[in-house]
Design goal:
Strand content of chain A: 15-25%
Radius of gyration of chain A: 19 Å
Oligomer: homodimer
CATH class of the largest domain in chain A: Alpha Beta
Strand order of the largest sheet of chain A: 1-2-3-6-4-5
Shape of chain A: globular
CATH topology of the largest domain in chain A: Phosphoribosyl-aminoimidazole Synthetase, Chain A, domain 2
Order of helices and strands of chain A: HHHEEEHEHEEEHHHEHEHHEHEE
Helix content of chain A: 25-40%
Number of strands of chain A: 12
Chain lengths: 336, 336
């Protein structure tokens, strides 16, 4: 079966099963706390726990040269990984960069890319400790980021949602999808903040730490889109979720600029790199006070052995979504 | 300047300088023991030291589909990283796989690739803890491997060579280059062991640990080719090296099968993934007894502020090499 039929998540499940059947013998396996299937992997070492994640940006799949600047590309390639560590409630520490570029690439462009990367790295005290450069017919940046747990010694997991938990998100949604549109159609003054949401996402590291401190245990970062990502939480927690589409904290000006797309983009646009978490109401309220950014309840976790994500409007009527989220291979409906 | 003019190692130097100038502030940077410029990065944690490396295989640059089998590709993509940990004298532990494939790829082929990877992982107790899958117009596999120091608590560094040290290598050389030729020209019965050298390199983990235990402090793995790789040791140690080309332990049958290429391939063919190390004679002799594989002295480290690699034949005459080793961008002479 071609991966286009199997889909990204079908392929990941297939490989996870293969690894599972491999026997997983030895000390490394026995120290593993979280393997494939969360935002990052976690294993025990004598000094605590190590968190590790890898994510890639591929030309013409995730970005177009000439659309995003090289400096933004560097920032974003690290930011998407920092966001995965944030979604575990961890602190990012060490990065390794695997870079593939055509031999016609200007070295100044690569330097600009590293400047963007170092800008974000500097804000979080991340050390870029190594990497690899390879020739390829297109640009691809794959970064592995290592992190550690925060002072509380707890983590955020996709599998820790409980029935009755409220589903909440940090910040605003849909801005990155609008930014991609802006980059495709040409940048306007009004489009600048959307473009920034797409090209320079700000990972929620401090917010992730505060979630853990306030007693949150379940979270994911919004990379594929809210519906797809809450679907990952549902499957990992063996629960369903009901999302109130009229409660989405849409990016400022999104409804005015793109009335036909705003809600869709908030639900499935992806790449906003906000945190989605689930917790009892009182904890969500405490988080709302503790965090500097907006915290918005958008739904709740419900019992459902089929792990469905139900979308309703404020009148309680079902909401139908055209595109559920990002899958690398099928590029069509998936998720819930 | 285009990276084709700057070259792979020029680009790496440029980026390392950029990172250096970035200020390197914070706890992560202060815990860093070895950054860019060795086989792997090393940092201190409370439990000892963490070793990390990343290396990639890109279709039509490192391999051709239809040439190497998917299972061998999986093995090799992990082996080249295990070899980097071995070259530090470390123990490989945790791997993260960043995979890019066209959406027309058969999932069975990806499963075969993972089987090859898991075969090698199982032999070393390596846990494959996570990864990322992305669509791309070609196949690229980038693996990050984390390891730990061995029981002795010492490491092998490119920068630790001393004047007068003998230069020695494990195993045999040139087999992988012959294997690539065999795969290009069609496999014959005599070519099988060369093909294996190219497609299923066996990383020298145990040998790396025994080198450390026996007092060796300087090593590198032979990925780019002996002349290029000893050049890295020379620059890192601010020394030169003299290599006796008639002393190379060429792969069995190489001279008979490819008389015109055997010595060249031993010097610059690359991808043999043997260990090259430098040490005083008595330590090299002890290593020769301790290791199960052949250990061959091929030259010695000499004082040279310009870090040149000098090639001589057994009569002491200079030997001229057509191609010095692998550079991703220039694809021409480089190194010494």
């Amino acid at each position: 079966m071609k991966v286009s039929q199997l889909g990204e998540f079908g392929l990941i499940d297939l490989l996870a099963n293969l690894i599972e059947k491999g026997g997983k013998k030895g000390e490394a396996w026995s120290n593993l706390v979280i393997g494939i299937g969360d935002d990052a992997a976690v294993w025990r070492c004598q000094s605590g726990t190590q968190i590790a994640t890898v994510d890639a940006l591929v030309q013409d799949v995730h970005f177009k040269l000439g659309g995003i600047s090289w400096e933004d590309l560097g920032w974003k390639s690290l930011a998407i990984n920092v966001s995965d560590i944030a979604a575990m409630g961890g602190v990012p520490k060490y990065a390794l960069v695997s870079l593939a570029v055509p031999d016609t690439t200007e070295s100044e462009d690569i330097v600009s890319m590293y400047r963007g990367m170092l800008d974000l790295a500097g804000r979080h005290g991340i050390a870029i400790v190594g990497g690899n450069v390879s020739r390829a017919p297109l640009v691809a940046i794959s970064i592995t980021l290592l992190g550690e747990e925060g002072p509380s010694g707890n983590l955020l997991r996709r599998s820790a949602a409980k029935p009755g938990d409220k589903v909440a998100v940090t910040g605003h949604l849909g801005g990155a999808a609008a930014g991609l549109r802006v980059l495709t159609q040409g940048l306007t003054a009004e489009g600048f903040s959307f473009k920034q949401s797409f090209a320079r996402p700000v990972p929620r590291v401090n917010e992730g730490l505060l979630l853990v401190e306030n007693g949150v245990r379940a979270a994911i970062d919004l990379s594929d889109g809210l519906v797809s990502d809450i679907g990952h939480v549902c499957r990992a927690s063996s629960l369903g979720a009901r999302i109130n589409v009229d409660d989405l904290p849409l990016a400022q000006g999104l409804k005015e600029s793109y009335p036909d797309y705003a809600t869709e983009w908030g639900l499935s646009g992806g790449e906003d790199y906000e945190l989605l978490f689930t917790a009892p109401s009182r904890i969500v309220r405490a988080v709302g006070v503790a965090l500097d950014c907006p915290v918005t309840v958008v739904g709740e976790m419900i019992m459902d052995p089929n792990s469905r994500v139900v979308l309703v409007d404020k009148a309680g009527n079902p909401f139908s979504l055209r595109q559920r989220g990002w899958d690398h291979f099928t590029r069509e409906n998936h998720g819930a």
